[in-house]
Amino acid sequence: MPLAGTLVDGLYQLVRPVGRGASSVVYFAVGRDGLPYAVKMFPPELQHHAAREFEHGNLLDHPRLARVLATTTVQGQPSLVLTFARGQVLQLRYQQRPALRFERRAFLLTLVHALDALAHLHALGLVHRDVKPENLIVDADGSAKLVDFDLSGPAFETFDSPVRIGTAAFLSPEAIRGEPLGPRSDLYGIGLLLHWGLYGELPGGDIGPANDPLEGLCRSLLHPDPQHRPASALQTRQLLLELASLPY
């Protein structure tokens, strides 16, 4: 059923859908204050996803994170009101690949902003647990925001039995094993994005060297043992900027 034009809580008018995930649809909305917002709707059976995303996303106050502002209901669907992230999902924003060859400055800015977002999240004791291209909204200049916190939770959270949390193609080795996930598991996701930026594809194919100073950092971020990855998002950011300045 089309929702465009629906007024939510008397405050936010839905305009058009701007994104769809496996478990939600996101609408662009305009508030009574004239500002842009996003309204994310879940099917009724996923009420717990909406509640979890609000619990963790409402804590966030950082320019590189889409903050979750409020909970609501839209035509029987549990929903969230979020700050609006301008741009496109990462893989649509970078049509020429590998991105580090064709739009190096912009893609580096995207990675820096992703690391800034993770640094803030990790400082609060949280991990994102689903770092992937669809969860980075990128503007024309490469500016980016990290979105989608319904899988986020406390670092090294434990469950009654092993649980694989994340998207299959972007799971770290420890996530595949169902182990508790910490900040270095999010950094594995950054390694996958860096690999995509270097080679135009995810690991697994038969690819030659990119002859780029960032290749060593990429290998480090994708190390099977989390203890051999960089220690933090801030350290990764520093290494990225230092290596990116080297000639290649």
Average pLDDT:
95
Radius of gyration: 18 Å
So, the CATH homologous superfamily of the largest domain? Transferase(Phosphotransferase) domain 1
Give me the number of helical elements.
8
- Give the CA-CA distance, first to last residue: 53 Å
CATH topology of the largest domain: Transferase(Phosphotransferase), domain 1
Keywords:
single chain; 248 residues; alpha+beta; Phosphorylase Kinase, domain 1; Transferase(Phosphotransferase), domain 1; 2 domains; 6-stranded antiparallel beta sheet; 32% helix; 20% strand
Describe this structure in words.
This protein has 248 residues and is of the alpha+beta class. The chain has two domains: 77 residues, Phosphorylase Kinase, domain 1; 157 residues, Transferase(Phosphotransferase) domain 1 (Transferase(Phosphotransferase), domain 1). It is built from eight helices and eleven strands. The protein has a six-stranded antiparallel β-sheet with strand order 1-2-3-4-6-5, with helices on one face. A three-stranded antiparallel β-sheet has the order 7-9-10. β1 and β2 form a beta hairpin. α4 packs antiparallel against α6, α4 runs antiparallel to α8 and α6 packs antiparallel against α7. It comes from Deinococcus sonorensis. Keywords: ATP-binding, Kinase, Nucleotide-binding, Transferase. GO terms for molecular function: protein serine/threonine kinase activity. Pfam families: Pkinase.
